[in-house]
Design brief:
This protein is an alpha/beta fold. Strands 2-1-11-10-9-3-8-7-4-6-5 form an 11-stranded mixed beta sheet. The chain has a 3-stranded antiparallel beta sheet with strand order 12-13-14, with helices on one face. The N and C termini lie far apart (65 Å). It is built from 19 helices and 14 strands. GO terms for molecular function: ATP binding. This is ATP-binding protein.
Length: 503
């Protein structure tokens, strides 16, 4: 079904329509200086398309909250935490509710973080909730700046990443980006380049006119026309608008922004002596206001915050302490090992970060009701490295294995699993693992990187590598007084390594 959105009139006085289905697939970029009518254009687009598609408006100035009165948009105040905004965004996609994210009152850093959290929640929604959404971002140069400014670097990175995901990868998730900016030169090029539809309004700077003309396929001489465009007049181009540059005058809107352009008003007729009394004498309401002057409290140390959170989980006062059943260490160890094995059975687990696996581990521990406090992240990484080495309990030579565990503690966390995998083969006198097995243990597909890991172990004096007459690899551990059997470094997996060794 083709839906034509009435945007106004073209240069010949005919109706100018925008193909909504094509817009959802090709995205839109709106450019124009302050006062050129960008917000008016966005409001016209939102009002006309509201009955047909879900909408999300990222509103840095609070101008679009008036859409709630006519079109039923839900206003989401961005004063919430980033985690809460992410969860709200996921529910917005699930229940298909049109919203306005109101960023008014926040400083630029906070606006960037809040917008990134909300857009990230919409982008990461479950596949079953990938319904089409028109995502309108006003003043997009704030959230996708072309260069680092005075904002914090981490805020700029997360905001730019969220905008890049919206414009580059959002289409497959049903997100259609509509971004508006005052200056193309201030907008990140990789964000602007993903739009296939353009509405260019009045601009004066040569660099902005040149970029606008370049996007519309116009020559440099024609770029001068952008200086002469009146308020509300734009030049349109794109598969959803027109195959050739088309002048458009945006039609009227039914709602109004809370902030309007300044208008001239006559000054009040006040005598100079009365003006002095009005300015220097406090009014009756001001007399009741006592200015607060206090220094902000020092920041609370992280350790104290964690202690407070731990204390808040204790039993409420007035309730009798319920004796907790004794924890069987062997049963707890068995349950933890079972959870760890479940995680490693996933073929993609080797290529996920430890932080993601740790969250999965905590959820599975709660499902299995593992008694006792959950493992901390360092302890989890250590257990994960041992589990990736394929050790169930203690190897036959417990002393050598204990020495291997002590040696691995001197390595970075991400290398311990690879080291223990080779050490276990040496303790068991098994064939040396192939490059493919080592690469998978490290979470990569690169065999060259696996060989570099072995070279790093050898540089540290932990391993001595040599080859036999067939060119198969042997890893000797001087501190463990053991070595692996010869193993084919080019074998595809562990089973083929063992099969080749038996042959």
């Amino acid at each position: 079904m083709k839906i034509g959105i009435d945007m106004g009139l073209d240069g010949g006085g005919k109706l100018a329509t925008l193909d909504l289905e094509e817009l959802l697939a090709t995205r839109l970029l709106v450019q124009g200086n302050s006062g050129s009518g960008k917000s008016h254009l966005l409001r016209r687009l939102l009002e006309q398309s509201a009955p047909w598609v879900q909408q999300c408006v990222v509103d840095p100035e609070g101008d679009f909250v008036t859409l709630a009165e006519k079109s039923g948009h839900l206003v989401v105040e961005a004063t919430r935490s980033e985690a809460e905004l992410t969860r709200i965004a996921a529910r917005v996609r699930q229940h298909r509710v049109s919203v306005v994210l109101n960023l008014e009152g926040l400083d630029v850093d906070q606006q960037m973080r809040a917008a990134a959290a909300f857009l990230g929640g919409m982008f990461d929604a479950e596949r079953d909730h990938w319904y089409p959404v028109l995502v309108v971002v006003d003043e997009a140069q704030l959230f996708a700046p072309a260069a680092a400014g005075e904002v914090a670097d981490d805020a700029r990175k997360v905001s730019l990443g969220a905008m890049t995901n919206l414009m580059c990868r959002g289409r497959k998730r049903g997100l259609a980006g509509v971004i508006a900016t005052q200056r193309l030169a201030k907008l990140a090029k990789n964000v602007a380049a993903e739009a296939s539809n353009f509405l260019m309004g009045r601009t004066f700077l040569d660099i902005d006119m040149a970029r606008a003309a370049d996007l519309l396929g116009m020559d440099r001489r024609q770029a001068e026309m952008f200086r002469d465009l009146a308020r509300g007049h734009f030049v349109a181009l794109g598969p959803a608008l027109s195959r050739r540059p088309l002048p458009i005058r945006i039609g009227e809107v039914e709602t109004a922004a809370r902030s309007t352009s300044p208008r001239l008003m006559p000054l009040p007729e006040t005598a100079p002596e009365d003006a002095a009394d009005l300015i220097f004498a406090p009014g009756p309401e001001e007399a009741r206001i006592v200015p607060r002057r206090h220094t902000p409290p020092p920041p609370t140390p992280t350790a104290d915050i964690l202690a407070q959170l731990a204390a808040s989980r204790t039993q409420p006062q007035g309730q009798a302490d319920v004796p907790q059943p004794a924890i069987d260490p062997a049963e707890r160890r068995r349950l933890l090992d079972a959870v760890m094995n479940e995680i490693l059975e996933d073929p993609d687990a080797a290529f996920r970060s430890d932080a993601v696996l740790y969250q999965d581990f905590l959820v599975r521990c709660r499902i299995r009701r593992v008694p006792g406090d959950p493992l901390a992240l360092p302890a989890f990484r250590r257990s994960l490295a041992v589990a990736r080495a394929g050790v169930d309990g203690e190897p036959a030579d417990g002393t050598a294995w204990q020495s291997a565990l002590e040696l691995s503690a001197s390595l970075p966390d991400d290398l311990q699993g690879v080291f223990l995998l080779v050490a276990r083969a040496a303790v068991d006198a098994a064939p040396c693992p192939s490059d493919a097995v080592l690469a998978r243990a490290y979470g990569t597909h690169s065999a060259r990187r696996a060989r570099r890991l072995l070279a790093f172990f050898e540089e540290r004096g932990l391993v001595v590598l040599r080859t036999d007459m067939r060119g198969w690899r042997i890893a000797a551990f001087p501190d463990l007084a053991c070595e692996t059997a010869p193993g084919n470094p080019d074998a595809a997996d562990l089973e083929s390594t063992l099969r080749h060794a038996a042959e």
